Amino acid sequence: MSTPHDPSLRERLAALRGPGTEARPLDARALAALAANPGCRRRALLDAAGIDKGAVAETLGAPARFGQSRFAFSRGHAFEARVKRDGCAELLRLLGVAAEEDGGAAVLPDLGAPGPAGRVARTRMALAEAAPGVWTLLDHPLLTLDVAGSTAYLEPDAVAIAPDGRWTVVEIKSFPILDGGADAMKVGAAARQAAVYVLALDAVEPARTGTDVLLVCPKDFSNLPTAERVDVRRQLAVTRRQLARLTRIEEIAAALPEGTTFDLGYAADGRTVTRPRAELSAAVDTVPAAYAPECLSACELAFHCRDRSRDDGRVDALGRGLRAELGELTTVESVLAAAAGLAGDPDDPAVAALRRAAELRAEALAEAAKEGAA
Ligand code: SF4
Q1: Which tens digits make up the pLDDT trace of 164-201?
Q2: In 10 A of CB 367, how many CB atoms?
Q3: Which of 35, 7, 26, 56 is nearest to 266 (CA)?
Q4: 67: which residues sit within 8 A by CB, 6+ positions away?
Q5: Does 208 have pLDDT greater than 90?
Q6: What pLDDT was estimated at residue 200?
Q7: Which residues' Cβ are closer than 6 Å to ligand 1?
Q8: 147, 189 in Cβ contact below 8 A?
Q9: What is the mean pLDDT of residues 251-255?
Q10: pLDDT computed for residue 221 by the predictor
Q11: Is-contact 149 9, C-beta < 8 A?
């Protein structure tokens, strides 16, 4: 979940969500996705308000096949339960702690407390009171991170405190490590998520947390847990920089037209949406987006934003690399006009390259026509 510091902003965001609608938690996965596209005010606002973007996309008629399937979700839970059974025996083994019968010892403090604030306080206490000389393992601690004026609550799978006092983030994933290697995309996503946890721990005490996190996965095609150390220094630097670039939520909220709401108008059964699609679509489109093809694997609103981007003829839909190369030419129309010599500064390298490409194309077509006529 995410809690704005300012009570009036809290009320404003609750109104955007709709009366009686529970806020969706803002987790490390969502924060990592947000950090990957810091220019998107739409996602920043909807996430800060705890709005169910999947339900919004569904109502807009543009549901994205995105996120974990129910099967993957339960497989992940079952694997984590296996790693943590018998007092986290497997996890401690993977951390290098000797088994109890061999003289190894680890402390597993109880982190239970009512409400998120209580759980955060228990976590902080456990971090501060970990005894030197022994391992301490925090199972599902609760951490906070300040994001654009809101407090996000984050729950890593575990945090290990080594006898020398160093903290290590533990990420448990159900994708396999095959022959010592795993799917690079999945490892990258896990690393970005873990980097968010490292940032949250740095907020408790700077430089105490190792930048190599422990990634625990099933070994080969078995269900046997194995672990790899993953260096997240790069992801940490990127996430820190990108989160700092986020526009403050109050600023985005203040720019909304009076009366804007993303309320889906749930009927009494709590499931049926009564908000007309066109009305919701207009509300969503009042918040500027920054669509890029990467959104397709990271955001529930991707299909809606892609359609809008294409409707507006924006070049963003063609990819960030191309978008950057085209500089001030932000629409397909302006690109075609520049290529045809009808617009654009000829000294602009993008315009010059487009004109040269258009000339080469015309020459090639003329050549082909000549050959066809011969
Ligand atoms: S899909 Fe839309 S809302 Fe989501 S990050 Fe991309 S541009 Fe922003």
Answers
A1: 999 999 999 999 998 888 999 899 999 999 999 999 99
A2: 10
A3: 56
A4: 54, 300
A5: yes
A6: 96
A7: 37, 40, 42-43, 289-291, 295, 299, 301-302, 305
A8: no
A9: 93
A10: 81
A11: yes
To which residue do tokens 């220094």 refer?
233
8 Å CB contact between 293 and 51: no
Closest ligand 1 atom, CA of 289?
A: 7
Local structure of residue 121 (DSSP, 8 states): H
Give me the torsion for CA of 322, 325, 328, 333, rounded to 10°. Answer: -40
Other Cβ atoms closer than 10 A to 335: 21
**CA–CA dist 138, 141 (Å, integer):** 6
| Beta carbons within 10 angstroms of residue 127's beta carbon | 20
Q: Count the Cβ atoms, other than its own, within 10 Å of residue 365.
A: 10
- Which residue reads 């970990």 in tokens? 130
- Ligand 1: distance of its center to the CA of 60 in Å? 14
The residues spanned by each domain of the chain are 2-67+256-315, 70-243, 326-373
Q: Strand order of the sheet with strand 167-172? A: 106-107, 135-139, 158-161, 167-172, 212-218, 225-231
Predicted TM-score (pTM) of the model is 0.78
Q: In CATH, what number does 70-243 get?
A: 3.90.320
Query: What is the position in ligand 1's atom list of the atom closest to the CA of 309?
Result: 7
pLDDT (tens digit per residue) in 318-367: 888 888 899 889 999 999 999 999 988 889 999 999 999 999 999 999 99
Of all protein residues, the one whose alpha carbon is nearest to atom 2 of ligand 1 is 305
Two structure tokens written together for 147? 């994001």
Q: Ligand 1, from 26, 29, 34, 43: best to mutate by most atoms within 8 Å of Cβ? A: 43
CB 109 within 8 A of CB 80: no
Which residue matches tokens 């490892």?
A: 187
Residue pair 249/45 in contact by the 8 Å Cβ criterion: yes
| C-alpha span between 101 and 40 (Å, rounded) | 54
Tokens linked to 234:
């790069």
Helix (H) or strand (E) holding 137: strand 135-139
